[in-house]
Amino acid sequence: MGIVVNVIIVEDNPADASVLSNMLARYSAENGVQFRTAVYGDAYAFLESYRADADVIFMDIELPGMNGMEAAKRLRETDTSVSLMFVTNMAQFAVNGYEVDALDFIVKPIIWEQFRLKLGRALSRTGLAGDVVLPVKTADGFVSVPASRLKYVEVMGHRLVYHTTDGNVESSGSLYKIEQMLSKARFVRCNSCYLVNPRYVQSINKLTTVVGGDELKISYARRKEYRMAVAEYLGGLI
Q1: Which residue in 202, 110, 194 sits closest to 156, CA to CA?
Q2: Is the pTM of this model over 0.70?
Q3: Which residues, other chains included, contact 190 with Cβ-Cβ below 8 Å and sequence gap of 6+?
Q4: In Å, how far are 7, 68, 224, 226 from 82, measured between CA atoms?
Q5: I need a labelling partner for 58 at 20 to 30 A (CA). Which of 1, 84, 104, 192 fits?
Q6: What percentage of the chain reaches a pLDDT higher than 70?
């Protein structure tokens, strides 16, 4: 199983959306990266369905109803880490992308070399250019679990549950061993039962944290370390 990247295109012009989709297909063929792509024709439909599960978002600025810049501001209320790129023929507005932590902008008409370089940069930023993949043994055989898709790992006795963006995978083993395998992916424990991907951390409270929509407990002993690790991770992406 290769790297799978979740991409969202928010573009009201079907021809421009098709150009982006075709360039993603070309990048996939040349670099061995698989893309799972969703396309939305307006910002409202995109924001209503978004679950903070994308790796890269291509956002047109000139959208009907709500423009791309306003949509990006609302996006950042729920997802601070996704790589956002504006696609527009209005470069003078795209340069204000720092306000919403936009990674870059692509000017229409889109040129392949420009697209290839900027997409490569986006994948490097999210760590997907060199994803860690776990071989997980289940009752039905082996399943490959990319760290980029893994929200957190839970241990219950000798049973491990891998909570991924595509559903749960159950296995057996040691959480300590998994922690060592995921060291390069910067996973961190919030208590002895959970190993968390900081990318999916949505909030941290006194003794709880929300990770990928699930509320987990933070042990008092690990509270400071957990907060610092998540803060360092987010700081590295901004």
Answers
A1: 194
A2: no
A3: 196, 209, 211, 216, 217, 218, 219, 222, 226
A4: 10, 15, 25, 21
A5: 1
A6: 90
